[in-house]
Amino acid sequence: xxxxxxxxxxxxxxxxxxxxxxxxxxxxxxxxxxxxxxxxxxxxxxxxxxxxxxxxxxxxxxxxxxxxxxxxxxxxxxxxxxxxxxxxxxxxxxxxxxxxxxxxxxxxxxxxxxxxxxxxxxxxxxxxxxxxxxxxxxxxxxxxxxxxxxxxxxxxxxxxxxxxxxxxxxxxxxxxxxxxxxxxxxxxxxxxxxxxxxxxxxxxxxxxxxxxxxxxxxxxxxxxxxxxxxxxxxxxxxxxx
Length: 241
Fold this sequence. Notes:
Blueprint: H1 6-21, E1 31-33, H2 42-67, H3 74-77, H4 85-112, E2 118-120, H5 130-159, H6 164-177, H7 184-204, H8 208-231, H9 233-236
Parallel strand pairs: 1-2
Helix pairs in contact: 1-6, 2-5, 4-7, 4-8, 5-6, 5-8, 6-7
């Protein structure tokens, strides 16, 4: 499962970081582009972006199938249900604030220390569909990362007899590793996020608040990136495209 999704991303992220580190330009002067144009023709650009999102979500559907059985509704046991929508929503928003605000500080500090690249979080051009696709990208990331890591990986490692903290640390390392294409600061920030999410998940056993938190964080970053660059150019630095 991981080789089809997040594990594969981790391998590519490590190679990408190697590429950055061996380039003649310092790390903080290089740029990682997220949510990019995939064609120079607008209709195909939209189609390719939508197809990429659909295929990225396919492993999530496979996880849901693997965790589900009519005799034991695992998805419900993991908190993937609609029994407590308001409770899940406010917990997710609070988590987004707790993670998102310090995350900006870690990113800026890592750039200043030259251990992180500049991240262009919304490299899509200006199209009528740009914001909807960015929001769908945030939804994809939330579903993919939290359901596969918290829902699937925790379940499988627990069945293998791994202890609670061993699972939390291993999952946090994986979460940080597939963000290494952004640099060491991104690894640290996402590792800490993974530790907190993993600890809280083992107490609540509900995935949805973490999906909501992840979607809120990424939506704010993807959609708000252009505004942040225009408003605080000295802090974030304009990413070259």
